Amino acid sequence: MGALIIAILGGTGKEGKGLALRWAAAGYQVIIGSRQVEKARRTTDEINQQLEIGTVTGLENYKAAKKADICVLTVEHSAHQQALESLKDALKGKILVDATSRVDYRNPVPPEPPCAAERAQNILGPAVRVVAAFQNVPAKSLAKAIGQKLEADVFVCSDDLQAAEEVVQLARAAGVRAYYAGELANAIVVEGLTSVLISMNRHYGVKDASVVVTGIPDGV
After folding, report:
1. Helix, strand, coil percentages, rounded to 5, for the chain
2. Distance, CA of 100 to CA of 132 (rounded, Å)
3. Can you list the domains of the chain with their CATH numbers?
């Protein structure tokens, strides 16, 4: 586990930082990527200080992707295509976890297909194994109670089952239950759930509405 390097590209936001905290606390080597290396290093300093470690590093996105075994994309959806095009060469031969949910928080409606992860696969080509995951996990919840399990489940979609199972294990290491949810095209439904959860948050005056799966035994 400790030898696996995870790069979180565009990882200075709440979701990227929360995932980094959880993986670093679990013993993984984590790199925070950003377009601005100074911003990445500020975030790594915060994480290292919070966890009282010194193993999390910060690099420019391309260099972070080149150095990692698995990459996680947590950019704003408006920067999705540009980020992928700039990182195509660095991502060859790797798994890319796309956490993008193309939902406008001001007007939360389900996005049109194809899903963000399918678009990523089309841009990157067959040399990259794209997996969709983490679209519906409340970002603020990730940074709380590090080391404890979250009451939020992750749907993992990919056309590559082996890659999907690797991401399922990574999610579980972060304290989040995760389940394989079918091929990459299914991620359009998962993206759409974001609009539902935002609407529920607004209606009930909460911030952390999430989805939990029942009927599947733990450890399956």
Report:
1. 40, 15, 45
2. 8
3. 5-204 (3.40.50.720)
CB of 109 within 8 A of CB of 103?
yes
Length of the chain: 220
CA-based angle 104:14:36, to the nearest 5? 95
**CB-CB contact of 133 with 153 (8 Å):** no
* Residues 6+ positions from 188 with CB-CB distance below 8 Å: 110, 111, 113, 114, 115, 118
> How do the pLDDT tens digits run along the chain, 220 residues long?
447 999 999 999 999 999 999 999 999 999 999 999 999 999 999 999 999 999 999 999 999 999 999 999 999 999 999 999 999 999 999 999 999 999 988 899 999 999 999 999 999 999 999 999 999 999 889 998 898 899 899 999 999 999 999 999 999 999 999 999 999 999 999 999 999 999 999 999 998 999 999 999 876 7
